[in-house]
Amino acid sequence: MPMSARSASLAEILDEMTAEGAAALTEHFGDASLRCYACGHRCLIKEGKRGICKVRFNEGGRLLVPANYVAALACDPTEKKPFFHVLPGSDTLTFGMLGCDLHCGYCQNFLTSQALRDDIAGVPPKEVSAERLVSLAQAYGARVVGSSYNEPLITAEWAVEVFKQARPGGFRTAFISNGNATPQVLDYLRPWTDCYKIDLKTMSDRYCPACDELLVERYGYIIRGMKIGADGLCPKCAERIPGVWA
Ligand code: SF4
Ligand SMILES: [Zn+2]
């Protein structure tokens, strides 16, 4: 599907903020096409085309991938990542970029994760070096540096670049992912990653996919209303709701 004019102009900016993808995550073919192994889609990308995530693309037979920017940055409790068994009481400087390999309707980070995929998503990137991010972590008194918000697998090279800077400064490193990984990307991340978490990021209400009944009403992490019983069925239409309910 062609991009909207808004997404196309953001893509132009992002395409400049790139570096060559890691050899460990790229397989080249004779016709200048290549396969990306940064996530489980394992996209076969022809010359001049983009992967499903839209932020990794094939230019002249080279895989270009996001580098040298953040689209979200915050220093807050490590427990909020959430890690409950990593340096309790410490803070984590968390950085995110743009794009995702998934397209979940409930994503709480929709504005960054769905950039270039949904016309109303996308925020301007801010140029930054890995060294600068680590000096910010020092200034904030963080003990952990983490890659999260959008899907970090699709920007794995940038996470490793930042983690390589962070480790000698005494920081632990954290990766918070949707889990759609390949063995190749896990091998690539493992030497530089201390903490790895898989979750899908949402705090939204849950509706019945069959009849639209409001089933779980949330305010942040607080459950205000819960209509699904131990049987896991919608009380209105008896649809089975996927999940663990008892
Ligand atoms: S990271 Fe992007 S280009 Fe690579 S396999 Fe996943 S969706 Fe495709
Ligand atoms: Zn229902």
Features:
single chain, 246 residues, alpha+beta, TIM Barrel, 3 domains, 5-stranded mixed sheet, 3-stranded antiparallel sheet, 5 helices, binds iron/sulfur cluster, binds zinc ion
| Strand content bin | 25-35%
The pLDDT mean sits at 93
What's the number of helices? 5
Element order, helices and strands? HEEEEEEEEEHEHEHEHEEEE
CATH-level-2 architecture of the largest domain:
Alpha-Beta Barrel
CATH superfamily of the largest domain: Aldolase class I
Number of strands: 16
Strand order of the largest sheet: 8-9-11-12-13
Principal-axis shape equals globular
Question: How many domains make up the coordinates?
Answer: 3
Written description of the protein model:
By secondary structure, this protein is an alpha+beta fold. The chain has 3 domains: about 5-65, no CATH class; about 70-200, Alpha-Beta Barrel (TIM Barrel), CATH 3.20.20; about 205-245, no CATH class. About 20% of the residues lie in helices and about 25% in strands. The protein is built from 5 helices and 16 strands. The chain has a 5-stranded mixed sheet with strand order 8-9-11-12-13. A hairpin with a 7-residue loop joins strand 3 (about 35) and strand 4. Helix 3 packs across helix 4. The longest helix has 12 residues, at about 5-15. The N and C termini lie far apart (about 40 Å). The mean pLDDT is about 95.
